[in-house]
Amino acid sequence: MHITVNSRKLYYEVTGKGTPLLLIHGNGETHEIFDEAVTLLSKYFTCYAIDSPGHGKSDPVKQYHYMDMAEDIASFTMQLGLQGAVYYGFSDGGIIGLLLAINHPDLYSKMIISGANTNPDAVKTWLKIAFTVITKIHKNPLFELMLKEPQINAQQLQSITIPVTVLAGEKDLIKEENTRFIAKNIPQSKLMILPKEGHETYIVHSAKIAELIIRDCRDII
Within a domain: residue 221? Predict the structure, then answer.
């Protein structure tokens, strides 16, 4: 189904019952990456799996900016009366989550993020070089986004007031030092570096992320 936020439509699917849980995918993906996870999560949560702005069945956008995406998700949350929901974001969805926690401190009760970064240099060097080369050839706006944004500093992270679980794979595409920087600066944070996992191996079409979310939310489900 669709909802109009900030003059554009976002597509989302609702499954299950219980505590509301927003699921936000990464760059160039759709809500469908969570299909396997939702099968398990829907036993414990009302899952809102969203196509983020400019992705999937949501309306296209002229320019991609993480802050714009965050404000659309904030409007989505408020319009549906989901204040106090749990938020899960993968990669770009994690970046969006951090911006939401910084700028809308009372919107969610808890946040779990995977493979997020605070600046473009936090992406492993070989991957940033690849993005740069591809963008010069094809002018991919989603890659251009990752080469310029986000720009989140320690002071902003320190302003986050909700509990945040910070996940990353041992073989993630994000430098581990940046993942640890995020967790170190969020006052109520918990860090998990998952052995043998990559950036998306435990998330995309995987029930592993569902098990991690359920385990992390035992106190509220």
Answer: no
CA distances from residue 181 to 26, 153, 160, 200 in whole angstroms, order as listed: 20, 10, 14, 20
Whole-number mean pLDDT of the chain? 96
> What does the alpha-carbon distance between residue 13 and residue 177 come to, in Å, rounded to a whole number?
35
Q: How far apart are the first and last CA of the chain?
A: 26
With tokens 């993968």, the residue in question is 90
Q: Residue 19 in 3-state DSSP?
A: strand
- State the Cα–Cα distance between residues 182 and 152, nearest whole angstrom: 9
Domain range holding 48?
A: 2-216
Q: Which helix (H) or strand (E) holds 164?
A: strand 164-169
Can you give the CATH number for the domain in which 150 is found? Answer: 3.40.50.1820
Question: Residue 58: pLDDT band by 50, 70, 90 thresholds?
Answer: very high
Local confidence band at 180 (pLDDT 50, 70, 90 cut-offs): very high
